[in-house]
Amino acid sequence: MRRVLDSAYRKDFTQSNFLTGKLLVAMPFMGDNRFDHAVIYVCGHDEYGAIGLVINKPLNSLTFSDLLSQLDITPCPTTRPVQMLTGGPVEVSRGFVLHSVDYQSDSTVRVGENYSITATLDILRTLAVGHGPSKFILTLGYAGWRSGQLEQEIQDNLWMIVGPTDEIIFRAPVEFRWRASMLSLGVDPSTLSLDYGRA
């Protein structure tokens, strides 16, 4: 798993044949409370496994101001409101910013055509003074799968695959992102059952 995470921060996955840059949308019968109704942006997927950021689970135990205080970063009056999200159960103290491509630093990794990820203190300092990408979300932690695990879960009908849009990732209220993802496929969530997708 470590290898997948590291490779995600060395490679440009724009041309990947895997699911990098896609959204995983949990089926209602997921069975894992950590991913109940989760929407996950896949930021790295290759033969070694996958990593992703949950984009619709609020982190209520910590505010952005608290985080900046812990990191000895002083915000300015123009700091934008930042909602903290739980990105997944792995490395929950590590921050990731998924953002529009109008921000770039030496540590920024382009993921797909329209999104980038930055996971250093520099972007937090930039956000603290009211600058940075025009669109972004901030998560702590990530979700990870070992080699072949995500593929098996998809085969078991635990996830639907959705193309990412700004509406789902940035504009839709957090509590509506799961439903918005389903509706983007023309799927009414109320019609889903345990046998959905099975022959």
What would you note in describing this structure?
By secondary structure, this protein is α+β, with helices and mostly antiparallel strands. The protein has a single domain, classed as VC0467-like (3-Layer(aba) Sandwich), CATH 3.40.1740. Helix content is 22%, strand content 27%. The protein has helices spanning 2-8, 64-70, 121-128, 149-155, 166-171, 177-184, and strands at residues 23-26, 39-46, 49-54, 84-86, 90-100, 109-111, 115-118, 136-146, 159-162. Strands 1, 2, 3, 4, 5, 6, 7, 8 and 9 form a 9-stranded mixed β-sheet that branches.
Radius of gyration: 17 Å
Second CATH tier, the architecture = 3-Layer(aba) Sandwich
Low-pLDDT runs of 5+ residues are 1-16
CATH fold group: VC0467-like
Instruction: State the domain count.
Output: 1
Question: Largest sheet at a glance?
Answer: 9 strands, mixed
Separation, N- and C-terminal Cα atoms = 32 Å
Structural class: alpha+beta
